Amino acid sequence: MTAARGRGRPRDPQTDTAILRAALELFIERGVEGASIEQIAKRAGVGKLTVYRRWSGKEELIAQAVEQTIPRDLVPSPEDVEAMAPQEIIERMLPAAAETVASPEFRALTARMMGSAVSHPALMAAYWKHHILPRRELAAAMLRHAQKDGAVSADADPDVLIDMMVGAVTWRVLQPDPPDAAEMLRYIKAVYQQIGLYRPSPES
Amino acid sequence: MTAARGRGRPRDPQTDTAILRAALELFIERGVEGASIEQIAKRAGVGKLTVYRRWSGKEELIAQAVEQTIPRDLVPSPEDVEAMAPQEIIERMLPAAAETVASPEFRALTARMMGSAVSHPALMAAYWKHHILPRRELAAAMLRHAQKDGAVSADADPDVLIDMMVGAVTWRVLQPDPPDAAEMLRYIKAVYQQIGLYRPSPES
DNA sequence: TTTTATTTACGGGACGGTATCGTTAATTGA
DNA sequence: TCAATTAACGATACCGTCCCGTAAATAAAA
Fold first, then answer.
1. Where is the HTH tetR-type domain (chains A, B) (predicted)?
2. Which chain A residue shows the shortest CA-CA distance from B187?
3. How far, in Å, are A44, B115, B135, B173 from residue B103 at the CA level?
4. Domain check: are B189 and B111 in the same one?
């Protein structure tokens, strides 16, 4: 990326972000092995050497793009999780979460990340560290809260429960005939209900 | 593929299988975008034209290669599922299933299939129809059985429960630091237990 | 029945064209 | 004045097609 102050012409930070954005787009469109430095440079409106000067290769560039340029949806603060009941947090977040998860962008990114997990583990590692782990810790806090309340079975491993929820949803959106946002909302409720994190309101 | 009886020299069926095998290998190694007809032909020991004579393009070829992959894990017959208790079926199958699912081959194929789900839906559709659906029907039968017995909550949607089990496992094997067979066995038991399909034996 | 002609499959390789690679040279700008 | 940048470079890979010489089957003729 942009180096420290040197003597000659400084690098343009906007160039960095343009390259990273182009890299993420092309990763999603074509995957790691389908994307090329040449395309990324072209889409960023930049010469190839401008890319090579900053990153040693495709993998490093895409990994950093995954770290830095994925739009983050809003996550409740840890304090909220401690204070509020899981049921309340979940009911407040579910519609937006369903919308996000059912979107074509999420589907595409999820597919490409999964597809790269074995051949390019560093990519998945970056995604895991920067995007998944923070959310998992939040979910684990919610689950522990719910286990104290008795809604979730106390002997269950929170990591396994999280995998079941996340795995079901990600797997569902990659299946043929993926759900739209409304169907996804019902689906997530069914999953959470099975775990014990959600109880349907009487009227719905 | 090999056409019906014609006038001239018939096509060699072994050539078909050699091409399909090479196509599946290269799909797993490099993904749809990374594989090429040229490589597939070379690995199969065959001229390019011999491939083009049978398939119109990479996608069709790989789709058929995925269809015809013969998974060697044994599936219990539907009669077994009706007759035996789910607990018994599961306990009998779990160790082999854990071994399969934790293997590098399964991880790699799973990653590539997921990775192609959005960009090449026909590929996922072929996999779904030929490999996933039959197993889902078996699992659904087991779940209905278990719901009658009261082990699994009767109001739960079997499709959702299957997604939770399959999703958790596939997601788990694609995470950084994937489990070995022994750890996978414990993991699957935890998942099944949460669903209600498994109860740990007293001594273990 | 035997021979010959015809037809298709096959491995191998060449083709014109395009895309990508990583490097080198020339230009631009703070 | 020095680093950033663009453009050009040769090399390699792949595409889809075509041709060569050979092999293997069927169909027609002797």
1. 13-73
2. A160
3. 40, 18, 19, 9
4. yes
